[in-house]
Amino acid sequence: MTRNVLLVSLLAGLAACNSIEERQIANGSYDYLKREHLSAPKLPEGVDTPEYTNDFAIPNGEKQQQILLGKKLKVVAPHVVMPMVTGSHIEEGSKEATVWFDQITDDKPLDNDIWDNLIGFLEKNNIGVLSFDKDKQVLLTDWFVYNDESNSSWLDWDKGVTEVAARFEFTLTKKSHGRSAALHVELKEYKESRNGEVVAGLADANARANEVNILNRVIANYRDQRVLTEVKRIQEIREGLQSEIGFNAKGQPAYIVDANYTVTWPRLLLVFRKLGFDVKDLDQTAGLIFVEYKGVDESWWDSLWGSGANELDLKKDDYRVQLEQIDGNKTAITFMNEDNEPFAAEKVKDLYDVFSDVMSQKNLDI
């Protein structure tokens, strides 16, 4: 009985020590490699030749590799970079672990956004940074260690776990216009341990598999952070924003909204609709909105509770509105006439009560 238990334990231990190469090839016998190609059967005289078909014959392609047979044929699943972030893509046919990002918002430079996400991902997973050269756009991680139980058989009664440790180098390449950038990852160091014993090094590793896996995790984190940021932004827009009278960067009278540009811009469009402005044209990059003031079109129900609650003391005419981010997390809104002349301080003060009231209202329709 003791001998049987010992034998089973030994077999389980051997199964647990499968090398990386053994896990990448098919199980079973390779006797089929020794078999000769079957030729057409020899028929005796007087017997009609049967009809043959080549429907299932494998053609000899131009790039057919005869050496990919038996143990030389890898049966692992392909590792594909997944561009899960809005505005991301991969180059068709590329075999490198690289993903391209396009700038879709102007709240911060694209390269800063990518690096902030990557460093945040590393911090969340307790991965150190050995070096980071922002000028050269290169970051080298410390050891990324994880336990891989997927390679353990259900017969592996010793509960052995494969520990994988890897270091990666991330490189960011920007296009000249700065609105597109490629994030590339390369495996720099690798070691695999089984029950405390190193069983594989960098030469044994499937570099692309490790590079693609870590890159896909970075991309997924980037996607999740963008979703959270967008949800937070929409909540801020709906909750209403506080404002005060102040001055823009040029010293002109303006409304100062207590929110950044990306939140204030869509909120102001809702405010315009509530106050009776029609937006005729806009340029978010330049922060310029062309509007026509038509006045508030109140319903019969509104008239029962008094009219003119949102009516501005303003001539029905065309105007221009300039937005600009100031003081880090605030936005200046400057009203101007068609000649780009800013409203006088007295006019800004007269309109403030109605403007600030609507700007601070909660749950405006989006």
UniProtKB/TrEMBL annotation:
* Localization annotation: Cell outer membrane
* Primary localization class, coarse: membrane
Alphabetized, the UniProt keywords read: Cell outer membrane, Lipoprotein, Membrane, Palmitate, Signal
* Gene3D superfamilies documented for this protein: 3.30.530.50, Outer membrane protein assembly factor BamC (3.30.310.170)
**Membrane topology of the entry:** Lipid-anchor
List, alphabetically, the Pfam families matched: Lipoprotein_18
A GO CC annotation recorded here is:
cell outer membrane
One GO term (biological process): protein insertion into membrane
User: What family is it from?
Assistant: Belongs to the BamC family.
Describe, as the record does, how this protein assembles with itself and its partners. Part of the Bam complex.
Main function: Part of the outer membrane protein assembly complex, which is involved in assembly and insertion of beta-barrel proteins into the outer membrane.
Q: What is this protein called?
A: Outer membrane protein assembly factor BamC
Which species does this protein come from? Neptunicella marina
- The primary gene name is bamC
